[in-house]
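Ligand: dinuclear copper ion. Inputs:
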Amino acid sequence: RYEKIWFGVAVLLIVAFIGTVAYGAVGAGIEMVDDDGGTIDPNNLSDHERFGDTGVHQVGDGEFEVNMIAVHPSFIPNDIEIPEGSTVTFYMTASDVTHGFNIAGTNVNSMIIPGQITEITVEFDESGTYGFVCHEYCGSLHHEMEGQIQVV
Ligand code: CUA
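Predicted complex:
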């Protein structure tokens, strides 16, 4: 009978997990994922296959990925340049505390949390400079935590 109880708990956890992921994806086009179903060590991001290699990476025709670390009071990288018409997927994590990520002129508005990956895909169809800021209080220099995306 213990097997039955554990099976029930496992089913509940799976249903809850799927529900959480589905809600996040449908709700805002944003998905919080653990790395390969595991965890990320916020204190050892340099060994992580994605966050050990921060910056902009072209992955296809007009497709880019940005691996970003938020650490008070900076985003790494904080000055991003991509061609007009690009589709950019941001993969973000934090190494210290919870931060925010809000790109002006878009509907991007998310949290960046230690131990998790925040994944957001954005199309940049118009050239210009898009500023982004941390909008979650994270320390004394919170107001200086910002960067820009130059679409050229
Ligand atoms: Cu980071 Cu506020």
